[in-house]
Amino acid sequence: AEILPKSTRSPTRSETSSISSYSGVSEEWRPLLIIIPLRLGLNTINRCYFPAIQAFFELPQCVGIIGGRPNHALYFCGIVDNNLLYLDPHFCQNFVDLDETTTTRDERDDYVEIKNDEFKDSTYHCPFILSTKIDKVDPSLALGFFCHTEDDYNELAKRLRTHLLPASTPPLFEMLETRPKNFPPFVPYVGENTKLRDYMDLGEVNDSYDEFELLE
Question: Domains of the chain: which residue ranges?
Answer without folding.
Answer: 36-92+129-168
